[in-house]
Amino acid sequence: MDLKTIADELVAGCRENRARANLDRLYAANAVSMEAADMGQGREASGLDAIRAKHDWWESSMEMLDGEIIGPMLHGEDRFAVIFRVTAREKATGTVSEMEEVGIYHVADGKIVREEFFY
């Protein structure tokens, strides 16, 4: 897949609640996910299993109330950015938070090989 196809499909998957299904389609087996801060599981997740575990943590800990996804914004032939604006409720406490982050995705050989989140 080319960069635009991967970027468009990642955004569509997020908007249509099929981000998890896109992991196997769009990500390299050895992809790395890097957070801006340690949320209790470390900043770096290496490999699809670790990235799936991040999705599991989010889905078990947070309830999505509202969200907006802006992008993708392509950069050259190997990167794109997406802005995520989310309102979510922490399931354990009921605390509602508004969050905004930018995801930068690096692509090589037709797969996402690295994602970095800035917030």
TrEMBL record:
Entries under Pfam families matching the protein: SnoaL_5
Domain SnoaL-like: 4-119
Top-level taxon: Bacteria
InterPro entries membership: NTF2-like_dom_sf, SnoaL_5
Protein name as it appears in the record: SnoaL-like domain-containing protein
Organism: Lutimaribacter marinistellae
